[in-house]
Amino acid sequence: MKYLNILLFLCLSWTTSIYAQVNYVNVGRAGTLQQILEQKGYMDSEGLVIAGELNGRDIAVLRALTGSQIYHEYSEASGLPSVDTPKLKYINLYDARIVSGTLPYSMAHLDVDGMNPNCVYKWYHTTDDVMGTFMFEPYTKSTITDVVTPASVRRIESSAFCDCRNLKTVFISEGIESVNGFFGCNSLKRVVLPSSLTKIEDGAFSSGTTNMTAIENIYCLATEPPVVENISGTFTSATRNNCTVFVPMGCETVYRNSAWGAFKHITETANMEVLIADMKPVHRDIPVDLIEEQEVVNKVFVEEPGTLQQLLEEYGMTDSEKLVIGGKINGRDILYLRILGGLRNDFQYQDYNYMNDNGFPDKPGTKLNRIDLYDANIVSGGGPYLMDGFHSADMELWRYTEDDVAGEALFEGEWRLREITLPSSIKKMDNRVFWGNISMEGTFVVLDGVESIGQRAFYSCREMEQVVLPAALNSIGTLSFWMCDKLHTVYCLNPTPPVIENAYNMFTEYTLNDGKLIVPAGCAEAYRNAYGWGSFKNIVEADDIEALVAPYKPQHHDFSVPTAVAPVSAYEDGTGTQVFTLSGMRLTQPARGLNIIRTENGKVRKVIK
Known about the structure:
17% of the residues lie in helices and 24% in strands. The protein is of the alpha/beta class and 609 residues long.
């Protein structure tokens, strides 16, 4: 009893010290944790109690606050926080729910020959009610000392907390049935295992090293011992020899007769609730933090190719979240869009010189996530839009625009872009156009005039759920839809199945087995007999497939009321038939300052009054 009282006193003392530094948030909408923390001044919190839904982006934010930031270029492109001195130690997710969606929370390198360095990664995304693989494993370091898992979680997957070398206490919440989390943490001292736990997989609490210090206390709330696949591989010898395993009253014998019998110290206790009182979470009524977000959309008509940067900088639109672009754009404009989308291609010194000598921004943008080029025309000229990291010393291998072609790697590796609409004039999509666009979501419409899709065009577009392939399409390159993990519906409007270059890894097993291929009426048999297409288990005919896909198709925009127009060399007098502010508001007459005038002949001009 004396030992118990001392332990309880120490536990309560620890509770007081850590809880004095805790902040509380309730995420009203998944994906907004960063904005909430910034708004409330909690970015430097040492402890966070979090309620609400958390998706991949929110987990990535928590990782950054603990010093475990995803690959720097990705983090910068995605607008994730950069934390020089991480402070977050205590993370209580008891009232939070992990949900799928948006950005990945972690990545691992892949050794795949021939891949561009932007895409040589395996990305890890959240899944509903699962603490996923590598969820809190740091790349170099982590400040996490204490963790409470969500009450809604049912499974902890491999290496979820591996190498969190400061982690001391873990409360695994009720409801979790299996742990494969690999809490390989040399500092781990106290662990609570819930009564719902039925299985601990091999290696879950072993660091893989012989010098791991012993876990001091394990609190097993289950009356039936959880199955341990490999006791010596799951708990180190130091833990088995020195740790005290606390079990419910009347359960010591059944634990000793199981694999848990390898522990030298197993103790029954009627005071389990007292022993874990300092660690056990309670449901809290935290006011909902709802960030009201209004997407900033700007409409731009480019009269002179190569002037998009000048235009957006002049009108203060470089922080747009969505850009609707009409007119003519060339290689320089595409490169600038890539930078606004989050990437600068400074792989080699020569690239760095080119970017700076030609007046491109020093840093990538942090806001742009949607681009609509439906009313634009891609034209040749304007310099390269991409400098290949492997071949930048050879300028002949840089990528340049061609008239009406979505060129090779046009928007490759644009990790933050959620929606991209190509120009309606496009006739060809070259290799790797969207390769590695891990955030591009929803439905992508390959436009009506496109006749061919190159290799790896949509490779690793993991959030894309549907794709519409036009009637003009006659060929698709190898690996075009590989690693599109959520692609569940393919609409193919061509009565004749387009030629697939190589069926191997064209679509994922999920798409082929659980997805649907929807084709025009009377064409299902042709698709079943066509190379590659016949691998679909579900091929469905649609009586009016054009009507079925009509809601997904993009629409032309009215640029007669612009939010911006391309710079003009001089003001020409004319009778103004319509006057607008820069934001597009209609005026009865020009106001003081800069106005937009649409003259009787239909031309748009800027006028300063």
